[in-house]
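Hi there. Long-time user, first ticket. I'm pasting a complex I've been working with (about 1000 residues overall). I'd like to know whether the download I got is complete or cut off, because the file seemed smaller than I expected. Thanks.
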Amino acid sequence: MSDQSADLLIEIICEEIPARMQARAASDLARLFADAFAAANLAHDRIHSFVAPRHLAVYVDGLAVRQQDSIAEKRGPRVDAPEQAINGFLKSTGLTRDQLVTEETPKGTFLFARTEMKGTATAALLPVMISDILTNFPWPKSQRWGATSFRWVRPLHRVNVVFGGSGLEGALDLGGANLPFTTASTGHYFEAPADLDLTGVGSADDYAALLRGAHVIVDQSVRVDMIRKGAKDLAARLGCETKTGETTIAETAGLVEHPHLLVGTIEDRFMLLPAEVLQSSIETHQKYITLQGHDGSFSPHFVVVSNRLADDARDAVILAGNQRVLRARLADAEFFWMEDKREPLEAYLPRLADIAFYEGLGTVHDKAQRLEKLAADIAASIPGADAACAARAGLLAKADLVTGVVGEFPELQGIMGGFYAAAADEDTATAVAITAHYRPQGPDDNLPDSAEGLAVALADKIDTLVGFFGVGARPTGSKDPFALRRAALGVIRILIEANISLSLHDTLRKAAGYHGFAAIDDELLPFIRERFRVSLRDTGIAHDVVAAALGDSELDNICLLADRAAALGTFLGSENGAGLMTGWRRAASILKSEESKDKQAFAPKTDPSLFVNTAETDLHSAVEALPVASSDIDLDAALTSLGGLRTPIDRFFEEVVVNDDNPKVRDNRLGLLAMVRERMLGVADFSKLEG
Amino acid sequence: MAKTHLTTEGLDFQSILLNLQRYWASKGAVILQPYDMEVGAGTFHPATTLRALGPDHHWRAAYVQPSRRPTDGRFGENPNRLQHYYQFQTIFKPSPPNSQELYLGSLKAIGLDPAAHDMRFVEDDWESPTLGAWGLGWEVWCDGMEVSQFTYFQQVGGIECAPVPLELTYGLERLAMFIQGIDNVYDLDWDGVPADQGGKCYGDIFHRAEVEFSGWNFYHAETDMLLTHFRDAEAECGRLLALETPLALPAYDQCMKASHLFNLLDARGVISVTERAAYIGRVRTLAKGCCEAWIGAADDGQQGEAADV
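Hi, the file is complete. Here it is re-exported in full:
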């Protein structure tokens, strides 16, 4: 801190912020203040942000105490302008003639008015800045409370502002009431509820330490570390490791002001439940941290993250309560698991007829019957896939939706189907395919790991895409309620990563047929094409290379097109490829200008008897060696022969003047270049490449 | 059913209920009795649905509401699920600045001292498609157990709530099971009186009702009659709302009837999934009409009643 700058602490105390919104809120708050300081011309050092369930804060190091003085400049008339014009300028600026300055500019000599603007004190700017940011804060969901109209994520109680070590005059307008800025923070709701004076705080670390003293770990990442490390240590003591991932650990950190870890135990009888069911009950629903043995086996121990300080008697009560809740949940799961297995998976099929899939798309039972056929069709294009098995898995894939466990734990759909299929003595391959058919559920999820699983996964997604587009339920803007973008990306990823060569048109047409549609919706292929383009770009292929590889070709064999884009990218990155592009651009540009001059396109043909230079002969034979365009072109071979075109084309442009005086020779040379153009475009749409 | 479990004095079911009433009475709430109709949740009571909107600027009420959820019936065989259970409901409008503190105080009043447990407010937004209502809030956890629903109402009947009411809903059976430390609802000590002195447990009082009503809900209810009743209630509600001076409260009674009849039809399995959404939409239309009529009447003369406290 100096006399030019001072530290600023802004802290909002509100009722519990949903765990999933906390990290984002802290970064939004820091970003909004950084933007506001920039807009107000206020220099500052680092901005630290903090968030705990009831605390949201930024600490700004070295914020300028006033805006920089600045000079406002206004150009007046020319120095030799008539008196009237100069007087008008003086009047508008309120200055006298001797206060104006004369300056040379490239357009002549002008008069200028320069006024010095005194910067405003930061303390005077802050109240409005803070109010604006809080009033327009981008919460995903916000609410009103009491009799006021202000919106926040949950009721907001205090806005604490400390600038240069002392409180700042100001208030937040709540729409019906004013909330004056204060300087009193608060400690842990149950452990240290008294007020904490913030005026003595001298640094971000000081602030965190003050709250830590009152049992609030206000730095989210510190809470996450405490939980991660604590769970790891407890697990190590039990001879196992933590199974729960970072996302859930971060969520548990958002539910406590001060984490305190306790170890609970799952009763033996429940350990017979599938690990996925245990995982869902314990982690997803109860937000406990699950553990596993070093061999990956599910551990009978779990970690409860409590929000209280250690106290043996209370810890025992808390643990007993949590274990009782878990026992009731697992007892429910166990009941459903046993009940569900009383009947074979197939027996659940008729009940799918009671669930509407979507208006106009029949019931889930109809969907199951479509999947049976489509999965078999697709399996024919997947090496090693057993079509009968894929059909069976397609038919049974959705049957678990009406089972008890999936009713309780919807996130286990597919997985439970796999268990029930195995329990009903279906083929192992059928069960495995059912388990994985929802995959990939996102960019980080794996593909199904069996050929039949891939077939059913594709069939499910394609049936959904064709169906929803067919009844006009397409995604619009940011709205994609049926996750059709994810479905399309899933199809693309499976085709590319599992290297499945199938005709998308044929498959979509079949799917449309099973829906009873006369044709595929017009917007579906462009939609998939756009997702495909984006996914290729995401793999690091430049957008113009993607455009060149896809050309205007019908999007049919995604796997092949992806290979082409990758091969083309590699080729263009090579010396031959880059060199050839120079030749391509010269050929294309000469043809363009001569064709516009002649008002006609040159036919791609040439008469070798009219060749004058051997460079023409060489180029001609190199062109002849190129493959003729066709849909099943062997791109690697084509690119290799394109590489062979580079030297002849370079030599051609070095040694030959295309526009020969003899019109016959000229036209013959342009015809040769038109051949080059035609053959190269047959390989890829090079015209889409940017210089 | 035989009573096998006797809890500590003051923690029996009826004491919990009495203590909640006494606590909220001490905080200035009007203590009401249950509404005398079948409803699915305490929110349906006109003291919540309609009073959330008007006419008073201040409205504080608390009551127990028997709630019927026909599809949750398990013939008395499931230790956690009932087709008839008790909700305790508190509504404070406008939501007080110390809402959380007041709520935690109510737990202490029924033997659940927050200081001795791990209490959490876990995000849980509330929505009732049949009432056209939604709000933001939490489910409150005590040692990992959900003990209440805590909601700041934002809309009811599609109408913005201003001021905003706070609604607290306690599932009494679950809460009492937690407090008494038992795993089967039917074992709950109802009255604190030992069995040999005629004391009753939850099962003594309700087990037979659970068995019989499950049978009626799932198998025996005459569906044609239910459908006719639904249509009659819907028509009567519409007629009352169309009167020159609409009768909001009698119309809302018919709306509640229609809603419960729909739940019964649902339990009987005669409503397909697509029809389901349509039925919910029909009840919502009634609820909205009632809320509008209720507010409209407020405009006609009751507004002056709103005074600052």
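A couple of notes from our side: Chain A has five domains: 5-66+121-213, 70-117, 220-340, 346-536, 572-688. The two ends of chain A are 52 Å apart (CA to CA).
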